Amino acid sequence: MRDNEFGAFLRARREAITPAEVGLPTGPRRRTPGLRRTELAMLAGISVEYLTRLEQGRDRHPSSEVLGALVDALRLSSEERAQLWLILGTNKPSALCPRVAEPPVRTVREGVQAILQRLEPSPALVVNRIGDVLARTDGYQRLAGPVGVLDAERPNLVRFVFTDDRARTAHPEWARIADAQVNFLKLGFHCDDPHSAGLVEELSAAAGAPFTSRFEAQQVVPERTGVERWVHPEVGELRLGFEVLEVSGTDDQRLIIYLPADDSTAAALDRLDGRHPGGLRAVSG
To answer: How far apart are CA 183 and CA 220, in angstroms?
Structure first.
């Protein structure tokens, strides 16, 4: 841990969250819109003196229980938890698990479903924290269906990548895709959730070292934008730009949107969609 990154992170997040967000009255004469130390200490069940030591860097090794309490009190997002893991150098995602883990949510809000409809014919999907595909556009069906991603009764991206041989054909840069899927799985891992633990146990047995070595490695913040190479049985190689967006107010659900990264990919997606050339334009950058 360099300098006082942990303390600076706590203070910045405390000052960024409003009392209203955590159910506290705003009250008059506040010098900052964020939480006071006394308020955060109360929410986390720790003393103000101890919180002060943490923020000032005089104690840099809080227990897992204290970490969990602070994560809950500050309502950290998945990305913020990942940042905290990196700051602390913590190798075990369970160190920041919530006190009570709920099963991964399998429903998608109507508003998010409406967004997917608006995204047609672009390939797009919503997944939960363990990689289950919860909803998708028809464009994603045409992209991923022929390569086998959606064959299972309950399609799961992580399971497909590590247990289906077709994944290595569909993804020429398979190692990079595998890294990304494990990093997202670790990001949403809940130590008290049998669904998370069950999937990890299943993949450890089915895939062995290619999965376990990645899962046991140091946490890395997953890429949320970039370009992936795919090989589609009908239209050949594709270069797809992707954007991963967090769905607010959910249990670590992500909206993943694919866009053509070059003109040949745009034309190939047009053919898959039965559109005239030029229907989808390549996104440069």
So the answer is: 6
